[in-house]
Write a structure and sequence with these properties.
Layout lengths: L4 H12 L2 H16 L5 H7 L1 H6 L2 H18 L1 H6 L12 H9 L3 H31 L1 H4 L2 H19 L3 H15 L2 E2 L6 E2 L13 H17 L8 H7 L4 H13 L1 H16 L5 H14 L12 H17 L1 H7 L5 H12 L8 H4 L1 H4 L1 H14 L2 H7 L8 H17 L5 H19 L4 H24 L11 H31 L1
Helix pairs in contact: 1-22, 2-5, 3-19, 5-17, 5-19, 5-22, 7-8, 7-17, 8-14, 8-15, 8-17, 8-18, 8-22, 8-23, 10-11, 10-16, 10-26, 10-27, 11-26, 12-24, 12-25, 12-26, 15-16, 15-17, 16-17, 16-27, 24-25
């Protein structure tokens, strides 16, 4: 299963021969990622007849390039207009959008793109070299361990609540309550569905995402002339390449931050069913917990943007590891790749590397080359896409609402979801006007149902014994890490205040 230099070189040259297919796939992936509601998964589904007609290697290269680029593209609307069209980009606007409003959109996009490509390249290389060991991660991550991983993300609610304890907790618990809408995971009993069959599967993520962030933001920007602050308009009046280069430099100087946040994404991605949203929230929470300036997070702090963007691109290679080693897709896109490759007669498992090494290793080589191609998009996209922010709100708001409504319709093709997006938009607008944090609501909506699912599964397998939560050595280690990551910011803050008191 080990890859040699000769094998790597041969596969790299072979993959580069498909450049004529990879470049359009990268462009399509960036566009798809930037459109709310669209994703690599549903795009590949639409193009299934095309991928079936392709040669297996060509189809593989096309799907991997589109998948990788869509992750990077999802950060564009999240930063510029506060539209996280996918769950993986849900944490990106927390600091990305404040930077755009301050007139630092070029800088924010450059940071996002560099973090995305660096995270993708780094984790692809690691996944390629360490597949046998990474594959074992999924064997150790059971329901108990996943509960603690969920709590890492949900603990962000407590972090947000630190600014205004009562309002932060109310927003978080409201999100958790909304997340529990639908049928329960044990007895399939409907909860708070009000007779709507569309809610039996729970609250769909895309309407919740675009409603809480984009629609509510559109309602707010209508009240002003521009989404930019006064200082932001001054900065955007004379844009230059300097801001883009500055963003690249900021990200490069924080290479260690990019590295370990990417590794968080890689490890979370290896776990089947975890996904990019968990990785992004966990990375953001860890980044803030161990930061020397946690108070800057949420105000347009570069590290608050680097963390989720590095992590959600680290997930990309991680989701493919269990697919190749075990035949278990780590996400929706990986599941569709499984269908396409099985159509071409590819059998997954350890034997794949002996029988079809060009497929086993070629998936990661294709991803590596895709990220190399994406490097060349960093400067032009960062330089020119930010012009979106200077458009008048009289034009911007209707476009945002229209895009988000279409995006909320696409995943399930229910008109009901468009109304749901508007409802979440009204909720988000009220929350913003009354100083409740919509991010706390969103965390509850996304992670709450997953936490419930793993908790009920663990309790049921243990015949109702709650102590099962502390029955695993790995789980106990994660519990300890969770306590430390929550307590550390308060300890550092206390130490800092004490030092200031002594100094004063």
């Amino acid at each position: 299963m080990d890859i040699t230099f000769e094998i790597f070189t041969g596969l790299l040259l072979n993959t580069l021969s498909f450049w004529w297919m990879m470049i359009p796939a990268v462009v399509l992936g960036l566009v798809v990622g930037a459109i709310p509601g669209f994703s690599a998964a549903n795009t590949i589904i639409i193009l299934l007849p095309l991928t079936f007609a392709m040669d297996v290697e060509a189809g593989l290269v096309f799907m991997v390039a589109l998948y990788s680029a869509s992750r990077m593209g999802a950060g564009i609307p999240a930063i510029l207009v506060n539209i996280p069209g996918t769950a993986g980009a849900a944490a990106t606007p927390l600091d990305g959008y404040p930077m755009a409003r301050q007139g630092r959109g070029q800088q924010a996009l450059a940071i996002s793109f560099v973090a995305s490509t660096a995270g993708g390249l780094l984790t692809t290389i690691i996944a390629l070299l360490a597949m046998p060991w990474l594959a074992r991660v999924s064997f150790f991550m059971h329901s108990v361990e996943m509960i603690v991983v969920m709590l890492f993300g949900i603990s962000l609610i407590a972090t947000i609540a630190a600014r205004n304890t009562l309002k932060g907790l109310i927003a978080g618990f409201l999100g958790l309550m909304i997340g529990f809408v639908g049928t329960d995971h044990v007895y399939a009993t409907p909860r708070a569905t009000f007779g709507f069959l569309e809610l039996y599967d729970g609250i769909p993520l895309v309407p919740a995402l675009v409603g809480l962030f984009a629609v509510s933001e559109a309602f707010l920007v209508i009240e002003g002339e521009s989404i930019l602050t006064k200082r932001g308009r001054e900065l955007m009046a004379a844009p230059s390449w300097a801001a883009t280069f500055e963003g690249v430099q900021i990200c490069v100087r924080r290479w260690w931050h990019v590295t370990w946040c990417s590794l968080v994404g890689l490890v979370v991605g290896v776990i089947p069913g975890a996904g990019a949203s968990i990785a992004a929230f966990v990375a953001y929470q860890q980044s803030r917990s161990f930061s020397k300036t946690p108070e800057l997070y949420g105000t347009g702090h570069p590290e608050g943007l680097i963390a989720p963007e590095s992590a959600n691109n680290g997930v990309t290679s991680g989701t493919l590891v269990p697919l190749i080693i075990l035949g278990l897709p780590g996400g929706a896109t990986a599941a569709i790749m499984l269908v396409v490759l099985e159509f071409h007669g590819v059998n997954f498992g350890p034997s794949l590397f002996a029988e079809r090494p060009e497929i086993g290793f070629g998936i990661f080589i294709a991803m590596f080359v895709s990220y190399i191609f994406m490097i060349f998009t960093i400067f032009p996209l960062s330089r020119y896409m930010t012009r979106v922010t200077v458009i008048s709100t009289s034009f911007m708001a209707p476009v945002i609402i229209s895009f988000t409504l279409v995006g909320s319709f696409v995943p399930r093709e229910f008109a009901f979801d468009m109304g749901l997006a508007l409802a979440f938009g009204i909720l988000g607008y009220i929350a913003r006007k009354t100083n409740y944090h919509v991010a706390a609501i969103l965390i509850g909506v996304i992670l709450g149902p997953l936490l419930e699912q793993f908790f009920l599964r663990a309790i049921r397998m243990a015949n109702g014994d709650i102590m099962v939560l502390f029955s695993s050595n790995l789980g106990n280690a994660l519990w300890l890490a969770l306590v430390i990551s929550i307590a550390l910011p308060y300890a550092l803050d206390y130490k800092r205040r004490k030092a200031e008191t002594i100094g004063g």
